Amino acid sequence: MNATYTARDKLVDLDELVTHIKDGDWLAVGGGLSSREPMAAIRAIIRAGRKGLKVVGSAHGIDIDMLCGGGCVATSAESYVGFEQDFGLAPNFRRACESGAVEVADSCCYTVVQQLRAAAYGLPFLPVRSVRGTSFEGLHPEYVAMPCPYTGDPLLLVPALQPDVALIHAQYGDAHGNLRIEGPPVADLLASRAAKKVVATVERIVSNAELRALGGATIPYFYVAALAEVPFGAHPTACYPMYAYDRPHTAMYFAAASAGAQAFATQYLEPYVLDCADHQDYLKRVGGTATQSRLASWSQGDAAWMQLYGEESA
């Protein structure tokens, strides 16, 4: 049974937040692809020198790629890590997996969902159909085939996977730890229920009354061990409605990562992660208020958001 976290004030700074993540932990990372990923916390994890993390999730991008480039990951149980049609495969992730530095435990999105769901339900396993006809079974000797006791249909049983920590970025939170996610929650709600604890960054700390006026908590306080107020904490991914995805910064990141491990270290990891004193320092290095204003302009209409993502911004 998971612990419950009932402290009335769970606010900490970013460096203290990531002390909840230990070497070797199973870490579920919130958000997905280029939206609402907990990037400020990812950078803090790398600066803290965490090693041997086992990451689990569905459809991720720069977050997992950066952790691999920072040497933090030992195992990936992610169903997908990449930059989709915009830039392609994730260079640091691919390099780490191909070299053997990261153990590959790939499966499909729904298999990961069922493993987290089993942990959330307190069950040892759940059945899936979604990997039939693929080679995923060969990667996972722990999967067990069985006929359905009711229909005789072939099923595959996948074991529960309980993360030690779920790391979430939300738009709003209160001091008690209630979190409100605006827009698609991706797998964050499920990971929060499955994990032993949740730690979170939020764009804005509000009162409980304000949170209720916004529509209430999507992740309730008793799952959450600690949270930090980190405005612009998902950059360079999007955090709607506050700001859009920073395509030019991501293009620069991707070019550095594609040039090899050493180029990535000198061109990106050092200036934008390791040499940053804190999140405020990072914000200055990526353009400060000018960048924040540019990315907030998406809401001004179709022309504004199309320009942010158009070829001219690459």
Write up what this structure looks like.
The chain is globular. A hairpin with a 6-residue loop joins strand 6 (144-147) and strand 7. The strands form two sheets. Strands 1, 2, 3, 4, 8, 9, 10 and 11 form an eight-stranded mixed sheet that branches. The chain has 314 residues and is of the alpha/beta class. The chain has one domain: Glutaconate Coenzyme A-transferase (3-Layer(aba) Sandwich). It has 14 helices and eleven strands. It is 37% helix and 18% strand. Helix 2 runs parallel beside helix 3 (62-69) and helix 6 (109-121) crosses helix 8 (188-194).
Topology:
Blueprint: H1 14-17, E1 26-29, H2 39-47, E2 53-57, H3 62-69, E3 73-78, H4 84-87, H5 91-99, E4 103-104, H6 109-121, E5 125-128, H7 136-139, E6 144-147, E7 154-159, E8 165-173, E9 179-180, H8 188-194, E10 198-205, H9 208-214, E11 224-229, H10 247-258, H11 261-274, H12 279-285, H13 288-296, H14 302-309
Parallel strand pairs: 1-2, 1-8, 2-3, 3-4, 8-10, 10-11
Antiparallel strand pairs: 5-7, 6-7, 8-9
Helix pairs in contact: 2-3, 3-5, 6-8, 10-11
